[in-house]
Amino acid sequence: MNVIKGFQTTAKHLMEDAVTIQYPEQVQKFHQRYKGRHHLRRYENGLEKCIGCSLCAAACPADAIWVEAAENTDEERYSPGERFAKTYEINMLRCIFCGYCEDACPTEAIQLGHEHQMSYTDRRDAIYTKDMLIDAPAEGAASTPQQVEPGAYNRSIPDMEDPS
Amino acid sequence: MSDTVTINIDGQNYEVAAGANLVDAAKWHAGNDIPVFCYHPKMDPVGMCRMCLVELGTPGRDRATGELLRNDDGSLQIRYFPKLQTACTTTVSDGMHIKTNTQQVIDARNDVLEFLLSSHPLDCPICDKGGECPLQNLTMRHGPQASRMYFEDKQLLEKHYPLGDLIFLDRERCIQCARCVRFQDEVVGDDVLAFHERGRRLQIITHSDPGFDTYFSGNTTDICPVGALTTADFRFGARPWELNEVPSISPWDAAGENISLSMRLDRDFGGKAMIKRVMPRQNEWVNEIWITDKARFGHHFTRAEDRLQQPQMRTGGTLRNSNWEAAIAAMAATLQGADGDVAAIAGSGMSNEDLWALRQLLEGVGAGRLGAWPPTHDAAPHLEQVGVGAGTNLSELGRGDAILVIACDLEEEVPIWRLRLKQAQDRGAYLVVANARDTRLEDFAVQGARNDKVVEGDAIRYAPGEAVSVMRDLQKAHPQIAERLSRAENLVIVAGAEGLSLAGSEALAAAAANFLIESGHTGSANNGLLSPLPGANGLGLHYLGFTPQTTLNIMQEPPRVLIVAQAELLDDDPAAQQWLSQVETIIYAGLFDDGISQRADFILPLQSFAERDGSFVNGERRVQRFYTAQGPMGQALPAWKLFGGISQNAGIANLKPSAAAVMLELSGSVAAFQGASYRALSRTERQFPDVGGRDLYYGGTAYTNHGGIGLQIPTAADRGADVQRRDMADVAELRAGEGELLIMPITRLYNRQRSFRPSLLVEQRILNPYALIHPDDAAAAGTIDGDLIEIVAGESKVRVRASVSSEIAAGGVALPRHLTDAAVPLSASVGTVSRVTDAVAVR
Amino acid sequence: MAIIGNPKYEQRIERHLAKYETKRSAVMPLLYIAQEEYGWVNSDGIGEVAQILNLDPTQVKSIAGFYTMYSEKPKGKYWLQVCTDLPCALQGADDFHAWLKDELGVDEGGTTDDGLFTVEHVMCLAACDKAPMLQCNFRYVEELDQNKMRQLLAKWRSEANGRG
Asked: What is the CATH number of the domain that holds A49?
């Protein structure tokens, strides 16, 4: 009896479109909110959004993020305000792609993208450094460090709209 | 009147000390955290921030009869103030009632926070204080959820204003609590910070020259309740929650400040844990919650590139890298083959464990000459007899007490003592400073009034070299001062060695001891002798049998084999080159190479205080332990392990497995260390005021003491021994002959000692080489202020700038140690001064 | 010139010092002298007052900053302070203040190009009944209107030119 029941189920789905896709030839469509590998974003002028506050590292449940901060100067500016991330590393073997870092970030500097194809032949290769994580500057914008007008970027956190 | 009063907090009665501050009493007895920003338990209340508002009532009295009013049921009638009162400006009184949890109080706290935040920047993610910030914490606990203020009204102010070389001010973050201003004014006594403007434009400024550059400036960043003050050293170094705290002891001076090393891994240090910052650790008997800037900013040497990192051995005339096994075996053979003609000189940075292991090794090879370095101060035998009594706490000195400071400059030698003694004078103690020159503490002593309060003190200026006779003949020459000192309830004498030979420093301590014994100020807390012995473990050397006289003996009759442990002989002693040349084999163990590698047969890297466990004895005879914080530099070993290893190799004793085991043996072998096991040294107790933990808003970011408050070695007088005064009819004093001057080496806190040089931030504040000389003497030598002069005394020949001033008595020249590359005399000696005509750049 | 050793002020300084029990109490009258000498409370003046009273210059600067009667910026020969508090405003003082600035072509707190006039508004000067009013170098000029003011300005100009 059970055998017939089983075949019935099979027969029912026989005529439907196949769900299985042929990875890697075919790549699944990702939802907008899919959480893949991290990106460090830049402002339009090329300055880094990351201010090295370590809140992502504090929020990380897997202890996968390592941040070391240093001080900006107007001659050598990486990000707006006084502080920037001198070292920024994510250990992708530890990361569980929960996106808490994204939530914790006060400047929307870290965002989880859609890339998911990450493989390593060495444990150490799983540590993604700042160079690997950060986006290229937008078309026409300079990379960091930049020499900027004194006092032009003295706020770390972008101005917020009046919530009232 | 009784010593306690009963107050009622939120319906419950508590018995608290009379005269206590309400905020303190509520916290200590009731565990009730009345929030504060401007109030600090170490400073006078000002009631500026209004955060501590409470409902306050006192028992009503009938105006006519003065009788206490009672309700119908017989209970006392409590009359509440119609408006909220600031708890911080209130002293407890019997029957006082306060309410801290009513809606009115909750609203008030909410409103004060909303007001403070109305112009506070949203900097928390990048702020060094974020995570240990009273404003952040109190906002979470008492603050409003949202602000009704206009965002565009926020003030945009300077965010990077240097108040000095070491401290930056962020004007936006400042909430105008004046804690830093009051700290400089009340605690340090250097009122170079003040408010400027008023209302919303109120700002902290300094308009002094030099600006904010006291030796205690870092403490203001601890007590700042926001991130307005940050240190240049730690700026953006780490977030507070990432730091791992390791209790330690300052390696610099006799105060033995309790510190906490904030450790974190760092890519710049090869991914290993390094000291990110140094913070105070509470020990109310030693340093309260303050530390000097030298302790705070001078930690860089622990990971300096030029640290010795590899054992080296001389083979075939050249020094070659070696390994520990070979070096230890070779040393064991050398020592055993020396027929007991072995001596050791140990520096005051060596821990007790190290000294014990070194002593065991020397005794094992049949040698007994143990020298202490530097051989400049010899007060230790007297400190053992009549040092300040057990339980001494300098912050208990006050009205009716007296302090005599002679032949030292505490501001430069032991800054924490100077801070605490100055405060003792503020509380009413009589402070006398005697020296051959002007010192910072003397300025305080003769100030007359401070902060509109009368302070009492005197200064004695004596001719260079005469400290001993001044102390001995105090009664005769200064009868009024001597009388006041003798009659004081408690008396502490601080006797240094400035302008004295080694024998002179011993004689001065003896004369001071005589005075104390005669006036009966021995054997009890807050009475007795102190001496600013150089280094962190000057007294440890003494208790373990290392003496400066032996050092002099070693210098005169050099042994065949000399072990030099953490002593930079060539940097300190101009004659070292000469007498070391008579030593056959030199075994040098240390942190830095001061050039001795030219001569030494073994160069052995030692670990610094941060890399190992150990203990020091501070100037008040408190044995205090420090803990391992950082990994070793290269192959460096702790000294106890090195000397224990040699002992084991030579078959003298087995190497102990840990510093704790060495201390256990030591505590069973040397009477002074009886009971000083690591377990006993780590004992802590609750101290007033509560700091650390949840209490950041109250005492600042000083750490709670989890590492131990230490154990004080009792003096002979404490144990009830009959201490006798010594007859000192004859005192050989240094006298300069015709055409000569007394060259007095003095200590400057910031100097070019090898261990301090790597702290580049402070290096710029080290003075250029100079010598202080009286105008008459300068005229005789044909020099004027700013001239390049050459000072020759014994083997020492240095070139410095002349600083001509009558701050120094005629006949003496004050010559700072460790500012010049060439060594100045070890201790005071007779020499000559001449003007340099062939101008060659100094240093 | 300086105030220390200046025969012009010697007696006045002595008198002020004698007036108070503690020396530091004389800081305010001495700051007036400094202001008189230099035209404003400058760094030299602060240093000299500090030296006379044996205070730290920071403390003197703090006092000078707190009180509005001391100017820490250079100002014109005639320092015009218009009261614009409520009772005066009701009498048209704020209109008068605005007009005066227009007339002289300066912003609030600004000084005319010829260095003669500085205009600023102040809190209550206790002459509400005679509003609009102002004080010129601490002397009251009351019941003003545009005509009267124009005449006064002309008078001060000629005074200044006559002497200078």
From this structure: 3.30.70.3270
C33 in the same domain as C93: no
**Residues of chain B with C-beta less than 8 angstroms from the C-beta of C61:** 194, 196, 205, 207
- Tens of pLDDT, residue by residue over B466-488, are 999 999 999 999 999 999 999 99
Chains that touch B (3 or more CB pairs under 8 A): A, C
Kindly give the pairing relationship between strand C117-122 and strand C78-83.
Answer: parallel
Percent of chain A with pLDDT over 90: 68
Which among C43, C56, C65 is the nearest to B191, CB-wise? C56
Identify whether A110 is part of a domain. yes
Summarize the confidence of residues A22-37 as an average pLDDT. Answer: 87
Cβ of C57 within 8 Å of Cβ of B196? The answer is no
Token pair recorded at residue B98: 């306060």
A158 shares contact with chain B (CB less than 8 Å)? no
B449 interfacial to chain C (CB closer than 8 Å): yes
Please name the residue of chain A whose CA is at the shortest distance from the CA of residue B130. Answer: A53
Q: Dump the DSSP string for B712-746.
A: EPPPTTTTT--PPP------------TT-EEEEEE
CA distance C56 to C63: 12
CB B757 within 8 Å of CB B298? no
Q: Which domain holds residue A76?
A: 43-136
B116 CB contacts (<8 Å, ≥6 apart)? B37, B49, B135, B175
CA distances (Å), A105 to each of A42, A99, B725, C6, in order?
14, 10, 71, 63
C2 part of a folded domain:
no
* C112: contact with B, CB 8 A cutoff: no
Q: Does residue A66 have a pLDDT over 60?
A: yes
pTM of the model: 0.93
Which of A147-161, B537-551, B654-668, B808-822 has the lowest average pLDDT? A147-161
Instruction: Inspect the interface and report whether the beta carbons of A69 and B267 lie closer than 8 Å.
Output: no
- The pLDDT tens digits of the residues spanning C105-157 come to 999 999 999 989 999 999 899 999 998 999 998 899 999 999 999 999 999 99
Q: Where in chain B is the domain with CATH 3.30.70.20?
A: 115-231
In a domain, C1, yes or no: no
B587's CB contacts (< 8 A; 6+ apart) are B331, B334, B561, B562, B563, B564, B600, B601, B602, B604
User: Does residue B842 surpass a pLDDT of 60?
Assistant: no
Question: Which residue in chain B is spatially nearest to C67 when comparing CA positions?
Answer: B197
Answer whether B206 sits within 8 Å of C58, measured CB to CB.
yes
Question: CA-based angle B303:B306:B308, to the nearest 5?
Answer: 85
Q: State the Cα–Cα distance between residues B176 and B164, nearest whole angstrom.
A: 19
Of C43, C56, C62, the CB nearest to B196: C62
Contact B168, B177 (CB under 8 A): no
So what's the ipTM on this one?
0.88
| DSSP, res B837 | S
* Chain A residues closer than 8 Å to B150 by CB: 162
* B157 touching C (Cβ < 8 Å): no
C-alpha span between A148 and A48 (Å, rounded): 14
CATH fold, domain B4-101, is: Ubiquitin-like (UB roll) (3.10.20)
Cα of B236 to nearest chain A Cα, Å: 6
Q: Is A131 on the interface with B (CB under 8 A)?
A: no
Asked if B196 is an interface residue toward chain C (Cβ–Cβ < 8 A), one would say yes
Flag whether A touches B (3+ CB pairs, 8 A cutoff): yes
| Average pLDDT value for residue range B146-165 | 83
**Chains C+B touching (3+ CB pairs under 8 Å):** yes
Looking at the structure, give the CATH architecture of the domain made up of residues B380-530: 3-Layer(aba) Sandwich (3.40)
Where in the sequence is the domain holding C107, given as residue range(s)?
78-163
**Nearest-angstrom CA–CA distance, B29 and B31:** 6
Distance from B194 to chain C by nearest Cα, in Å? Answer: 6
A83, A107, A164 ranked by CB distance to B236: nearest: A83
